[in-house]
């Protein structure tokens, strides 16, 4: 059964959906731009068989606050504030697309807080051709002001983000969406090469891997997470 909660992390309040036993190892899920915690509903119950799953609405998305001030670094700080508010020392972390950028920024800057890292079709932080997004018609489930602010950072990333990928110490799995994804697959491969010891896997269903192939996604990720679980020490 899914639980819902609002957590005050200081500057903003973040909405969270939770699955699984409260005392199970924590797994955090970070969604793509324009999505929210509900985006993970097809895969979260499978992870919750062995994990306490936390899926956030990042700032400017869903039921979290829409403060009008947006950057990937602010989202990273929000996630860290959430971990602190719930006294979660370290977590396994899955990030999709934009959420994956937030995830690797956190793993770079706070390596002690991320045990295992899964990056789902995440762009490498290199400059790319800028485009001007068009606002969809009608009501949105996210703040449109967030889109150009974050897109500017993804189109022209801070050069330090690329350099600091080598600082990531978490066990890392990079999942590529294959040729049907709009994200450069050469870039996804480079992302994996730059993270020490990272493993790269392709599930060739396009950018929305956990939607298009939820069983393959959960099986691949669960095998990776369980492989790196340390057995309990018995006296």
Global structural class: alpha/beta
- Poorly predicted runs: 231-235
How many helix segments?
8
Number of strands: 8
Per CATH, the class reads Alpha Beta
Could you please say which CATH topology applies here? Rossmann fold
The number of distinct structural domains comes to 1
CATH architecture: 3-Layer(aba) Sandwich
Kindly state the mean pLDDT as a whole number?
A: 95
Major sheet strand order? 1-2-4-3-5-6-7-8
Backbone CA Rg: 17 Å
Structural description of this entry:
With 235 residues, the chain is an alpha/beta fold. The protein has a single domain, classed as Alpha/Beta hydrolase fold, catalytic domain (Rossmann fold, 3-Layer(aba) Sandwich). It is built from eight helices and eight strands. An eight-stranded mixed β-sheet has the order 1-2-4-3-5-6-7-8, sandwiched between helices. α2 packs across α3 (98-109).
Observed structural traits:
eight-stranded mixed sheet; Rossmann fold; 235 residues; 8 strands; globular
Secondary structure layout plus pairing:
Blueprint: E1 3-8, E2 13-19, E3 26-30, H1 44-47, E4 52-56, H2 72-85, E5 91-96, H3 98-109, E6 114-120, H4 146-155, H5 159-163, E7 171-176, H6 185-194, E8 199-202, H7 209-212, H8 214-227
Parallel strand pairs: 3-4, 3-5, 5-6, 6-7, 7-8
Antiparallel strand pairs: 1-2, 2-4
Short structural description:
The chain has 235 residues and is an alpha/beta fold. The protein has a single domain (3-133, 141-227), classed as Rossmann fold (3-Layer(aba) Sandwich), CATH 3.40.50. The protein is built from eight helices and eight strands; from the N terminus they run βββαβαβαβααβαβαα.
């Amino acid at each position: 059964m899914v639980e819902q909660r609002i957590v005050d992390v200081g500057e903003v309040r973040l909405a969270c959906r939770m699955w699984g036993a409260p005392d199970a190892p924590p797994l955090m899920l970070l969604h793509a731009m324009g999505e929210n915690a509900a985006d993970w509903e097809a895969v979260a119950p499978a992870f919750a068989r062995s994990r306490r799953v936390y899926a956030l609405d990042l700032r400017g998305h869903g039921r979290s606050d829409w403060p009008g001030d947006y950057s990937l670094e602010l989202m990273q700080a929000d996630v860290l504030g959430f971990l602190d508010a719930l006294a979660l020392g370290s977590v396994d972390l899955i990030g999709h697309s934009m959420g994956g950028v937030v995830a690797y920024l956190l793993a770079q800057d706070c390596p002690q807080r991320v045990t295992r890292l899964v990056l789902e079709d995440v762009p490498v932080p290199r400059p790319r051709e800028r485009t001007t997004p068009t606002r969809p018609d009608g009501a949105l489930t996210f703040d449109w002001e967030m889109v150009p602010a974050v897109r500017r950072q993804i189109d022209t990333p801070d050069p330090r983000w690329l350099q600091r990928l080598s600082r990531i110490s978490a066990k890392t799995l990079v999942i590529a969406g294959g040729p049907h994804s709009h994200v450069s697959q050469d870039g996804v491969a480079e992302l994996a090469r730059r993270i020490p010891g990272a493993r790269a896997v392709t599930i060739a269903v396009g950018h929305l891997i956990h939607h298009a192939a939820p069983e393959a996604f959960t099986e691949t990720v669960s095998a990776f997470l369980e492989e790196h679980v340390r057995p309990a020490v018995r006296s």
